[in-house]
Amino acid sequence: MIIKLYTDAASVATHPKIAQIPSGAGILLVQNGHQYPFKQIVTAVDNHAAEFQAAIIGFEKAQKLSESEETVMFFTDSRLVADAVGKGVMKHYPDLTQKLLALQDSFPLVITQWIPDRQNMGAHRLALQALHQAH
């Protein structure tokens, strides 16, 4: 079986005097033709960190949904997250990268693909809904 995981984050502009900003995480899981939407408020230093957090939450949700050894097709519109997963390291977000990679290790195969924003609208809308709840 295959689980499709789409994640996205939405943040307000960062402010130099605010260390953490409320952001929205949107997660859309698709398994056996069923969609499982999730939205959550996260606190992050910037939108990149929020993108990592959305991916981490997405993989945590996928673990709970997974019935057996399932392949995950992971779709993100964040080049930074896709690059971090591909390289196995990210200089500016090492802790978030390691947490994400550790979660991915619980699946036999994870295929990560960067997609443009317009192909990630389900997760994007969920992230915006969470962001609006935060403000």
TrEMBL record:
Superkingdom as given in the UniProt entry: Bacteria
GO MF entry, a single one: nucleic acid binding
Pfam families, alphabetized: RVT_3 (PF13456)
Name by which UniProt lists this protein: RNase H type-1 domain-containing protein
Domain RNase H type-1, first and last residues per copy: 1-135
PROSITE patterns noted in UniProt: RNASE_H_1
Membrane-spanning intervals of the chain: none
